[in-house]
Specification:
- By secondary structure, this protein is mainly α.
- It has nine helices and no strands.
- It is elongated and about 65 Å long.
- The mean pLDDT is about 85.
């Protein structure tokens, strides 16, 4: 672990716990039943407007507040290729922001259609609603893939460095594989849940390791 990280262990631990905890909250919020009639997303939205708004806001909040951990995680890795660490940071942070933005826009579009009120031609509105119901998933694919490659890079670097327990790193690698398979496997939502689990474990695992390190540093003789 780099010297500058050792001087701010508790801050780094807080960022890790924040990212891991928010990932768990978003994971729980994402496990909701699909619409009873996929052809009528506006009817579903009208009955679950508060839930839609909550998930949209939570996804955006998670993405923004998880970026600091996605960047500072690289500082835990000693004697690693700086270019690989930079790539892992860029892909992980960028993928998280893309994913959060995609989820937010997908839900926000349906909320906006519902809030616009009756239209002269309900069939056109229904068509737009069905379009955005499908587009919501397509908007997440770039973020999931970039995030997945970032997790793979971080997983490989962490495995070699031994900065975190191998069990935590193995779950991180599994999340990376899930992200890379986004376009190859149709069940994008399941892959996203796997990545959220992996990132939550990574954040909480890093937070615990950093907190233990800070306590050891505080108890060491000066």
């Amino acid at each position: 672990m780099r010297t500058d990280v050792r001087a701010n262990l508790r801050i780094h631990a807080l960022l890790a716990f924040l990212a891991g905890g928010l990932s768990l909250v978003l994971l729980l919020a994402s496990v909701v039943p699909p619409p009873g009639d996929p052809a009528q997303p506006l009817a579903w939205e009208a009955g679950h407007r508060s839930a839609y708004a909550l998930v949209a806001a939570l996804a955006l909040t998670w993405s923004v507040l998880s970026v600091p951990f996605a960047i500072t995680l690289g500082a835990m890795i000693e004697d690693a290729d700086a270019s690989l660490v930079t790539a892992a940071r860029f892909l992980t942070a960028g993928g998280i922001l893309l994913l959060g933005t995609g989820v937010f826009l997908g839900f926000a579009a349906l909320l906006a259609l519902g809030a616009a009120g009756p239209a002269p031609d309900p069939a056109v509105v229904a068509h737009h609603a069905r379009f955005w119901a499908q587009m919501r998933y397509l908007l997440t694919d770039p973020g999931l893939m970039a995030w997945g490659v970032g997790l793979l890079l971080y997983g490989g670097l962490l495995w070699r460095s031994g900065a975190l327990p191998r069990s935590v790193v193995a779950i991180c690698l599994a999340g990376g594989v899930a992200g890379v398979l986004t376009l190859a496997v149709f069940e994008t939502s399941i892959l996203a849940l796997v990545q959220l689990v992996a990132f939550a474990v990574l954040g909480l695992g890093a937070g615990v390791s950093l907190l233990r390190e800070s306590r050891g540093t505080a108890g060491a003789p000066r």
